[in-house]
Amino acid sequence: MTSTPSPSPADPTNTDDWLPVGTLVGAQGLRGELRLNPASDFPERFTDPGPRWLQAKAKGSPLTEVELLEGRQLPGKSLYVVRFKGVTNRANAEALVGNTVLVPAADRPELAEGEFHLLDLVGLEARLAGSDEAIGTVNNLISGGNDLLEIQLNSGKTVLVPFVEAIVPEVQLEEGWLLLTPPPGLLEL
To answer: What is the spatial distance between Cα 75 and Cα 24, in angstroms, rounded to a whole number?
Structure first.
């Protein structure tokens, strides 16, 4: 593994250079494989061999280049099992748990009309149908069985909103907002 200069998560001049695509959440077996929780809807990020970059949790940690040798999705789960070059035993794998897996932002796949890179939703204003005023801001995404938008409401509360067309029927990336049509009670939780 080689170390390369990294953008600091707090440095706004470099954040556009890298895309976080997943987090290493545990060792798998004894041969150095790792379980990865994806933050990308593109499985090739975890299955196609090639260079990836790891960043430790510590703020401002440098990126470390690694080579993905292989990956596979666990049956019936949203987790992947990946193997990196040079990571050959459980101890090596455990040392990487908690690292974020990144790819260069320039490697974004082309999207069809109406599709979005989920990370582009962070920072968008959330508006209710029939109003041009923001009720809050998307400040995080939680990937799992269903993608959830974490929205910091203007009231100070944080709510989780499923990113499904029935609840988020409109996204205006260029204008910086998305429309919510939440069922009763969703924003009061």
So the answer is: 18
Angle formed at CA 142 by CA 153 and CA 55, multiple of 5 degrees: 115
Residue 109 above 70 pLDDT? no
Length of the chain: 189
Confidence at residue 189, expressed as pLDDT on a 0 to 100 scale: 55
Question: Of 43, 41, 27, which is closest to residue 83 (Cα–Cα)?
Answer: 27
Alpha carbon dihedral 32, 37, 39, 43, in 10-degree steps, equals 70
Q: How far apart are CA 29 and CA 44, in angstroms?
A: 22
Using one digit for the tens of pLDDT, what is the confidence trace for 6-31?
A: 333 323 234 457 888 899 999 999 99
Residue type, 32: G
Element holding 90 (H helix, E strand): helix 90-96
Strand residue runs (E) in the chain: 2-4, 18-28, 33-38, 50-55, 63-73, 80-84, 100-104, 125-128, 134-142, 148-153, 158-162, 170-172, 177-180
Among residues 74, 55, 66, 51, the alpha carbon closest in space to that of 8 is found at 55
End-to-end alpha-carbon separation of the chain, Å? 45
Place of tokens 């494989």: 33
* 148-153, strands of its sheet edge to edge: 158-162, 148-153, 134-142, 125-128, 177-180, 170-172
